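Bug #77: duplicate submission created two jobs. Keeping one. Sequence:
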Amino acid sequence: MLQLHYREVGQGAPLVVLHGLFGTLDNWQTLARRWAEAGYRVISADLRNHGRSPHSPEHTYTAMAEDVLGLFDQLGLGPDTTLLGHSMGGKVAMRFALDYPDRLGKLIVVDIAPRASDMRHQDEILDGLNAVDFTQCDGRQAADDALARHISSFGVRQFLLKNLYRQDDNSFAWRINLPVLTAEMAAIGTEITGAQPFLKPALFINGGMSDYIDATDKLHGIPALFPNSQVATILDAGHWVHSEKPDEVFGLVQAFVGQ
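Kept job's structure:
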């Protein structure tokens, strides 16, 4: 169990937020502040091998859920807590809900289903990240130039470059544990299963232009593990629903948590 780096804002009912693959807690800070202003205690965490949290050679959903349990214990979070996770963080949240159902009041999963995910679509991102030579990289522009040889999307590159930081010796590096994430990419796509379903309320939010949650997931995969769940689709949004349609995500979460 690793001690996760986190940021806390606001007071009220607890809402814990987990980012996705290659992300950090910073990805959710705009919405975190809005929920805090609406009367919630919002705790955003960096998952292991991401952001400012510790690195580890182990990157399984069981281990990541245990890390979150440690955070709950550290902060004294009770069973009125809502846990929200996006993408990889959504699978961590599902694993936590199934393993520690008594620690949660509600679950929110953003644009990911329990089923196994084919992670080959991450190959170009991994190629780009691994192509950056930090012995030659003298800053953000040089890193972006190296990424651009593999990743055409400017938006994706800007998202990844949030992981760039300057070390004490003035050299640059990635905050993510890139060797482990590269090695464990298949495990990151693994299916979430459970011996017993999570019976408390769950909200799944998916982007209408994303294929991370499909019709079969809505009919079978999600209800099998989360029978007291609902799926809300935000039209004209892709996988990064919270950055593309923040007002809609804010409203859905506020309405669900306030029920």
